[in-house]
Each structure stands twice: as C-alpha cells, then as structure tokens.
Write a structure and sequence with these properties.
The complex is a heterodimer of chains A (124) and B (202). With 124 residues, chain A is mainly alpha-helical. Chain A is 35% helix and 5% strand. The chains are: A mainly alpha (124), B alpha/beta (202). Chain B: GO terms for molecular function: ATP binding; GTP binding; hydrolase activity.
Chain lengths: 124, 202
Amino acid sequence: MDAPKERWVGRDAGPVVRPYAMTRGRTRPRGAAIDLVTILVATGQQPGDRVWLSREQRRLLELCRQPSTPADLASETDLPFQVVQILLADLHQYGLIEEMRQSEEPDRPDPRILMRVLDELRRL
Amino acid sequence: MNSAASDTFGRARFGDADDIPQHTLKILVAGGFGVGKTTFVGVVSEVRPLRTEETLTDASTGVDDLDGVEGKVTTTVAMDFGRLTFSGGVRLYLFGTPGQERFWFMWDQIAYGAVGAIVLVDTRRLSTSFASIDFFEQREIPFVVAANVFDGARRYTVEEIRGALDVDPEVPVLLCDVRRPDVARGVLVTLVEHALRSSGPR
C-alpha cells in the first residue's frame, strides 16, 4: 500500500488533504493518548462489519502486524505524531491492536536496560 | 528479564530478533530555535531523521501575543525524531521539541517515563534555555546541558555557563560541537550515566 498521495495546487496552499481531515477533525484521541514509544501489535481480530476504517487506519493496522511504536509508524507513514496517535487510539478501542507490556514501572526506565544501552553506546 | 508478559508477547510470538522492538526508551532534546536540535538528532539517528509539523490547537493560550490575531487557534511546531537500535530489541528514541513554554503540554507527554533530556544551549542566548531547565528541574527529570559551540561565538568555560544557568552541581554541563557524531554520542553517554546515577532516589 502506498502512502496517501498528496495533491498540491501551489506551494503556499499546502497539501489538499489537511492532516486533521484524516482524523475527521479531531485533535485529541479517544481516551488517553498512546505514548509515542509504546509497543503496539495487531491482535489479529478482524474489524467486523460495524467498524469503518480509513485508508490510513488500514495501513497502520497492516504495519502493526509487526510490533511497532507510534513514533515509528508516524515516520513510516509520514503523518504527524498527533494524527497517528488519534488513529491508533481508534484501532485500540476497536480491539484491533494492543500494547505489549515492557516493564512493571512504566514511569521510569529499567536500569538494567540503561546499562546495556550505555555499554553499546560506548562501543560505537 | 522484565516480566512474564514481555516473554510471552515478545519472544514466544515474534522471536528474539533485534529488529522487533522489545524495550523502548525516550530522550528529549530541548532547546530554543536554531540551537542545533535538528542537527543533533540527525547526527545520532540511524534512521533518516523525521521532521514533522505538528498542528497544535489551544497551545498558545496566554503565552503568545495574540493582539490582532485573536482568531488564530492553531499553530504548527516542528518536531525532530530520531532512533537508535540496540541489541535485544532495545530502541532509543530522540524527540527534539521547541523550548518555548507554550509547547510544554506536548513535552509532558514525551517526558513521561523518559530517560532524561538534553538541553542544548547557545552561549550567545543563554536566557532562552532557562524555561527548559526549569521544566526538567521541577519534574525531577535528569538532564544534561550541552552548550553548542558555534563558530564565532565567544568561548565561555563550563563553570561560567554553569554559573549563568544556575544548575545544580551534579548536572553535567558540556561544551560541544554537535555536528560531530562522536561528540553527539558522547552527550548521550553522559546523559544515560547521569540518569543511572539519579535513578536511585527518584
């Protein structure tokens, strides 16, 4: 699937599809925002008949078949972080994606992981 | 090592490949306009650094001088994004965010659970970094100060900069040229070391 094509009518006008059109005008996600580095993965559930997904959401869902983060997904799709967060929050609410737990204490990094990072940074 | 959940999710389902993220870490790169955030993120990132224009609403209430533009409800802000991958599925993400107070609601989100922050300062305009430093001090987020040495800027010593910024003695202050990859990585090392030191009583 290709990234959404942007049509430009002139340099000053910008893309014809404004980013927040993809969120149907919403500037905040339903519920709490998913952290930009939360690891997300598709649950494998099918959207079902009552759920309508936009092209961007179908693409995000496809990408989530491999575990990924909102930050990486934004990079992959060239969409602003906040737009991606809103679209992902929908997918999460529909039960199509879930968070992979990383640590008991999400509010602080694991010192053992930091030690590993430090070792590798020093060796670079 | 972390929890049963990460084992059953991460390894059993996806294998232990390094290209599957299993642990993610965040670092903020803060600093005023033109101080070198984009350069820093670009130099250390292994992926093509992403620069997104985030459209923000109600971000500038009470901060921007809105005289004459009262109808303006959105503003855009450039965010720099970079990534480093380590073994065992560990990924370190860098987010370069503007230093002005009106973007702090976004910082709060990025700062949650972050390793810490790198405050890039321009020695010709030190006062533009006061707000960033206050932000991290108040939230007890470990940070280092990296004074980007620009050509032609008067050289100050680390002690002069520390004194002018009035940061705690344990906060590392570095003079550096962030265009050099080894130097930029050294700033990351200093921050992670500092974060580990301060992680005990936090």
